[in-house]
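Entry:
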Amino acid sequence: MEHVTQLARAVLFLVIAFAVFMVVQISLLAPMWLAFGSRFAFAGEGPMASSRWCIGMLAGSTAAAFFSGLGLARFGGVQRQRLCAVFAVLLCVLHAYAAATVTERVAANAAMEVDLDTMSFSQAGEFAVSPAWYHAVALISNAAAAVAGGRLNSVASDRR
């Protein structure tokens, strides 16, 4: 029974870490959207995100992964390093999948009729496709940031 409880706790912490990741990332991207608008976010009229927007997203997702790693290490108990590693692997899998499906998503989203000038932040999130290079870089930076956040907090916790 103890193993089931530990597994359930680990899954719960991973779900919370992913929620923290999304909240932090969206909280950092929304002001960028409000300040610069849709023409900054997209490359041309299609669904491909601009390089400038991707650099901002990369900064936001790396910060989000770092804070998620901090949280996992702070509340993960004896399994904190394992949880950070699993979270890093989950981020890698998500980015690898997104990179592998860029072409299909661009084709599907290009058929959508949208007006970039009146598009909301949430509509842009559904329409936008990040280039494969972004996912390749984010895969590495997010995984490293999640592990670094976990290690930083683990070192601080061990000193107490």
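Residues 45 and 116 are 7 Å apart (CA to CA).
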